Structures are given as C-alpha cells and as structure tokens.
C-alpha cells in the first residue's frame, strides 16, 4: 500500500499488476468455463504477425497473433425481402447516432428547430433501423448562471426525437467543446466557471513548467484534483456542481428518463472520457506523440507530496518525472518511457503512475456514484442505464511502456493491466462501460506508431466480461467507407459518430443499409441465459481498408450483458 489519494486507496491500481493482458486460448476458455459457459476456439489456420519494439514481446501475452485467426467470412445481406427498416430483433445491437456537436448551441438554443434537413435526417435514420440518437448535454449551454438551468433547447430536441419513436442517449458533457480532433463547434465551460479559474487558475489541469514559466492551463475540464475543493465554484465544489446538474436533468426530464432517455453517459474528463487531457493539439500535440502528464496544478502537487510522504519517499513528491519528454516525443526518445531501462519500470515509476492513475480512478468513482444515486428507478421497467466512457488510446500500445496510455492516466503496461480496476468501478456501482475507437485496426496506422487498437479492444472486452460489466462501443473518428463500417464490432450497443450531410448522400445508403442489417442480426445487450450457456466464440471480420482484411476472434461477445 503506497498511500491514499483523496480518500481512495491505491489498491485498485496495484492489485492487478500480474494480469495477463491479451488472453491466450486457454485463458479465455478457463474464464468462460468459470462462469459456467462452454467455450470453443478453432485452431487458427494462420497467424497475423504484429510488430513490437522488443522482439521478446512476440512470444509474450500481448502477441497479437495469439488472438487472431484467419477464417472465411461472408458479408451479411438482407434476405427474404427484409430490409434494414424491419423491426429490431430481440438480440440485435442497438445503434445510436451522435447528433452534431452544435445541436444545442452555447446559448442554449436548439439550432435545427426549423430545419427540414434535420427532421428528415432523423426520420430517415429511424426508417433504417437506428435505435436512438446520442446528444451532448453541455454544461456550458444549460447552466449559464450558477444554479440556474435552461433546458429549453434540449426539451425541443428530445421531444422531436421522441415524436419519431427514437430513444435518447444523453451525455452529461461537463467538458468544453472545441480544440480537439473532430470538434466542429465551440461550447466553452460556463462563464462563471472560467471566471472562477481567473481567480484560481489551479482549478484547471496544468502541464509541466517550461523555461521557468508555469505550465499551460487546460480549460476543457476542471482539474480532478479540485473535485472536492470547497466553494471554489461560486460556493460549491466541482463534484457538487456535477451532482446538482444531473439532479436538475433528472427532474426536468423525469417522465422521459428510463423510457425515451435510455442511457446517461457520465462525462468525466476531456471529450467526456475518463482520462487526463494529455494529448491536446492546442498545446502542440500531434499524432502519435506520447502526450504529457497533467499534474502540475498546486492541488495535484500537494496530493503527490502527501502520497510520497506516506510511501516513505518524500523526495518523490516534489514534481512529476523530469525525463518524460514532450507532447510529440516517442517513447524511445525519453528516459521515462523507453522500453528497456525506462523509469516507468522502477519503484519510483510504479509509485508515480499508481498515484497518477489512482487519482483518475477516484474521480471516476466519485462521479459514477453521484450519477447512479441520481438516476431514478422505475417500478414499471428497468432503471435508466448509467455508463462511463473511456478513450481508446491505441498508439504505442504494442510497446512495453504504453506511454500514451500512461500520460492519459491508464496504468497499463507490458506486465500490468490498467483496465481491470476501472471496470471494477462500473461493476461495483452497476454502471456500463463504453470504449471508443472500436472501428480501428492495427494495419490502418503507420507501423512506426506501434498502434494496437485490436489488442486494446480484446483487453477491455476481457476485463468487462470477467467483471460482468456491459460493454458498448463508439467510433473515435467519422467513418463512411464500406471497409471502415464493416470493421465495427458487435457490442451491447454502438454509438455512431456522427450525423452529417455526408452520411445522408445517396452513394452512402447501400453501405449504411448493410451495416444496419449486420447490427440487427447480431447478438447485443444481453444474450438470454440459454444463449449464454450454449453460444461459443464468434469470429468477426475486420476490414480496415480496401483490400485489407484482418479476422479477429471476438471471443467474449457471448458473455457481455446489459
């Protein structure tokens, strides 16, 4: 035990150090059999070799070849006259389509209130079999004055969605919009929060100092180290503000929560994801840079000093690692992240990374607890589902240090699992989990970046299945080509990013129809108990680019449940 981070012990991020990150056939069989589920994997006919900075890793638990198999897969097409508009089968994968970022503007107005294009688009999506729409509920758009909530714009859009027979996935977006990859709108944090930041700049994440100057302040999300700081936001702590906001949302839409509004995604960081804002283009980051640690505001440094003192090494608590590079560095250019002999793999590195990721886990747990306590239970049906979203940080995944994941707060390395502790938070509080970047595959990225989205997806699926946590997916970037759409895997639900005019072009309709048919005819939310005990492992074709096919064994689909 190293210490305590704001009341949450480090054991969550320490106890899984020996977990096998990419399961072998025997590991998967054993885990499934322990849950009373028979499993079978056909011997792979041909393995796909992956790249690694360390040749020894090719024989280790993260070998991508151990989890892939070559098979022949046929593209599912509508038969017997059915179309993608037919009713969704009980076991189909519900598809949500994310609405444009500026559907409700920064002043709280529904931008498309008189738009025939918008209404026609939603009606067309409903006809194609889409289950519902996902929408960012912006903190900055609703609570423009502290404690006063304007839901008028959201009432309009939710009523429109409801009138078309669609469901709603509501994202409690406590972050600002603008400045990230794919952002096409500007919705800042509430002005009164920004004003509080003028008076106390340390309520924002801060990167490392440069040339005797303070680090850059990131105003996308309030620092997690200020979560429980009393009265810093007009008499309330940030966590109190988040709780009040979600309670006000529940009261404003009480008749719809649990019926039209099926899911509430709790925004816990940048882009609504539980992570540090470690890779921000405005700060100079470019893919595939490793990013930077965000632990230099005064509360973060005080927390680090306290943890170091409790660990018996006060000298470890003065600052973050001095040799962790810059936003655009590669792992081997740094002393901290290099594969062999890097500081991440020392007692000091283990201490720092456990503290850094532990603070993030503590923040995530605080908000999930608040959200699940606010979500109403309805005697006539299921309660609304609360979910937590994590980022699919896949670059440098096939290295020993997993540098980009570490700076984002996921303590995941070649010899340590960084996702089990996170999944356990969801399991403990009855929340679901959503992973982004599920549309990606290794082959579509530059080899030099040693990306591993396939291995990451397998790892998170393994952790979710073992903990009994429902796993949903989201694509990280817009994907409109047939190859990218066909690569999307089967999960509890899928959120497609996002509704644009390009998505409505006639040339795209065949691709979309095929995708929706595939989603409707695959296992989803929670296979019936009978299906769980009788269903084996389902190979799924990953088409990453025209002419490139990678067959992945999506072995845990049979045990994921809602």
From TrEMBL:
Keyword Zinc belongs to the record: no
EC number(s) on file: 3.2.1.2
Query: Which residues fall in a compositionally biased region of kind Low complexity?
Result: 56-77
Q: GO molecular function, one example? A: beta-amylase activity
What's the protein here called? Beta-amylase
Cite the SUPFAM superfamilies for this sequence. Answer: (Trans)glycosidases (SSF51445)
Name the domain of life: Eukaryota
What is any Pfam family matched here?
Answer: Glyco_hydro_14
- Asked if the record carries the keyword Hydrolase, the reply is yes
Gene3D superfamilies, per the entry: Glycosidases (3.20.20.80)
């Amino acid at each position: 035990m190293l210490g305590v981070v704001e009341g949450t012990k480090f054991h969550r991020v320490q106890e899984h150090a020996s977990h096998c990150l990419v399961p072998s056939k025997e590991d998967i069989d054993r885990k499934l059999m322990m849950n009373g589920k028979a499993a079978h994997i056909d011997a792979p006919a041909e393995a796909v070799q992956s790249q690694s900075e360390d040749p020894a890793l090719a024989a280790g638990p993260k070998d991508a070849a151990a989890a892939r198999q070559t098979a022949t897969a046929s593209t599912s097409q509508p038969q017997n006259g059915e179309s993608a508009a037919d009713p969704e089968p009980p076991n189909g994968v519900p598809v949500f389509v994310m609405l444009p970022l500026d559907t409700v503007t920064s002043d709280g107005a529904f931008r498309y209130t008189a738009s025939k294009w918008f209404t026609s688009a939603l009606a067309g999506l409903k006809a194609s079999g889409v289950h519902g729409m996902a929408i960012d509920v912006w903190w900055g758009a609703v609570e423009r004055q502290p404690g006063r909530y304007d839901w008028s714009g959201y009432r309009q859009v939710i009523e429109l969605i409801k009138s078309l027979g669609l469901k709603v996935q509501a994202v409690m977006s406590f972050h600002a919009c603008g400045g990230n990859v794919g952002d096409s709108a500007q919705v800042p944090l509430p002005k009164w929060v920004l004003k509080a930041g003028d008076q106390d700049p340390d309520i924002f994440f801060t990167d490392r100092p440069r040339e005797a100057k303070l680090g850059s302040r990131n105003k996308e999300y309030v620092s997690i180290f200020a979560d429980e700081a009393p009265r810093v936001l007009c008499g309330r702590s940030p966590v109190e503000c988040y709780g009040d906001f979600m309670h006000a949302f529940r009261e404003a839409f009480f008749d719809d929560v649990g019926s039209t509004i099926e899911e509430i995604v709790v925004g816990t960081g940048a882009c609504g994801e539980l992570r540090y804002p470690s890779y921000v283009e405005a700060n100079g980051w470019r893919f595939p840079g490793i990013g930077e640690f965000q632990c230099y505001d005064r509360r973060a440094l005080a927390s680090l000093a306290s943890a170091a003192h409790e660990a018996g090494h006060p000298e470890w608590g003065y600052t973050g690692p001095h040799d962790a590079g810059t936003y655009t560095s590669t792992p081997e250019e740094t002393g901290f992240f290099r594969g062999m002999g890097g500081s991440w793999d020392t007692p000091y590195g283990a201490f720092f990374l456990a503290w850094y990721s532990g603070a993030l886990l503590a923040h995530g747990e605080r908000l999930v607890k608040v959200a699940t306590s606010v979500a109403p239970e309805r005697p006539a049906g299921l309660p609304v589902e609360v979910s937590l979203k994590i980022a699919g940080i896949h670059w440098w995944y096939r290295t020993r240090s997993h540098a980009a994941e570490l700076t984002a707060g996921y303590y995941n390395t070649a010899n340590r699992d960084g996702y089990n502790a996170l999944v356990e938070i969801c399991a403990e509080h009855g929340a679901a989990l959503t992973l982004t970047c599920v549309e990606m595959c290794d082959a579509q990225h530059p080899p030099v970046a040693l990306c591993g989205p396939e291995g990451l997806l397998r790892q998170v699926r393994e952790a979710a299945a073992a903990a009994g946590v429902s796993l949903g997916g989201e694509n990280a970037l817009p994907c409109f080509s047939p190859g990218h759409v066909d690569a999307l895997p089967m999960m509890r639900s899928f959120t497609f990013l996002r509704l644009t005019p390009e998505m409505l072009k006639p040339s795209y309709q065949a691709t979309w129809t095929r995708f929706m048919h595939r989603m409707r005819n695959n296992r989803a939310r929670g296979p019936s108990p009978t299906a769980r005990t009788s269903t084996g492992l389902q190979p799924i074709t990953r088409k990453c680019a025209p002419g490139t096919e990678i067959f992945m064994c999506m072995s845990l689909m049979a045990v994921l449940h809602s």
